[in-house]
Every structure is written in structure tokens, then in C-alpha cells.
Amino acid sequence: MDSPSPRWLTEEEKLAWLGLVSAMVRLPAALDAQLQRDAGISHFEYQVLSGLSMSAERTLRMSELAQMSDGSLSRLSHVISRLEKRGWVHRTPDPADGRYTLAVLTDDGWDKVVASAPGHVEAVRALVVDPLTRTQLRQLTEITRRINHAIDPGGTCTG
After folding, report:
1. What is the pLDDT along the chain (159 residues), one digit of tens a residue?
2. In Å, how far from its chain's centre is CA 47?
3. Which of 81-95 are b and which e, b meaning 16 or more Cβ less than 10 Å from the residue's Cβ?
4. Which residue range or ranges hold the HTH marR-type domain (predicted)?
5. How far apart are CA 101 and CA 90, in angstroms?
6. Distance CA 143, CA 55 (A)
């Protein structure tokens, strides 16, 4: 029994795919470089701190924070350990259900997010928002929503 032949990409599809791959590699590196240079933290660390800063009482279950920051629980645990050493986060058992651990943003962590956010937002504007028209930005929103849904039909992908 013959297997079906691959559905090779057309030239147009290949150009779109290679452009997306390039952006997926280069954008995180550029954001990481800006945050390392200006704030001494990685992009993932910023995502974690920012996620906590936007949560009620600056607190989230570790599992929710991992999902919000698009990282594994293992990766998050290592990052939280580093952030704890800097005094920006602390962990505590969830009083509602002791099986869970909460990550809590400290006042120093809040100050770090507040100090880091302006430079990060400027980098996001310069690299993603400003080069696009309003129509392209709306299209990008829809494109990333569709891609994220194809990756995770259950809806745990953000965006």
C-alpha cells in the first residue's frame, strides 16, 4: 500500500512559512536581548513577573502561571527559584487547596516589573506594533489566534 505523497508547500506558502520561522526565532532573541541589557532579566522571567503583576493580589497557582507564561511547570519552577533568590517572588502553599503552590510577587518584584515594563513595551512597539498598519495588526491578531487554536484546540494557548 502506497503512502500518500507529501503536500509540498507552494512558493507563496514557503515564503510565508520561512518568514514566520525567522520571526519566531529572531523576535524572542531580540526581546530577550533588550531585557537582559536594560533590566538584567530574561524575557521568560519578565513574562512570569508581568503575569503575577496582572493577577489578583499578585498571586497565581504555579500551574496557572506556567500556562500563562507559555512554559512548562519544570521550567517555571527553576525560574521561580531564581526570582526568589532575588527577592522578587515567594512561594507558599495554596490555603484553599494545599496540593497547589502559589507564586506571589513581592513589593520588590512589583518594583522590578514597573522599572522593566517601559523598555519592554518600547521594544515590542519598535519590533512588532509600529512596523504594521492597523489592518495588519488586526490580521496578525487573527492569524496568531488561528495558529494557537491549531496548536491547542482546547484553548490553553494565550492570544
Report:
1. 678 899 999 999 999 999 999 999 999 999 999 999 999 999 999 999 999 999 999 999 999 999 999 889 999 999 999 999 999 999 999 999 989 999 999 999 999 999 999 999 999 999 999 999 999 999 999 999 999 999 989 876 555
2. 5
3. eebeeeebbeeeeee
4. 11-149
5. 10
6. 27
Q: Interior CA angle at 68 toward 95 and 108, to 5°?
A: 65
Q: Which grid cell is 60?
A: 497565581
Give helix then strand counts, H and E, for the chain: 6, 3
Is the C-alpha dihedral spanning 140, 142, 145, 148 positive or negative? negative
Domains and CATH numbers, the chain: 43-137 (1.10.10.10)
SS3 129: helix
CA pair distance 39, 127, nearest whole angstrom? 18
Q: What is the DSSP string of 23-50?
A: HHHHHHHHHHHHHHHHHS--HHHHHHHH
- Look up residue 4 and give its three cell numbers: 500518500
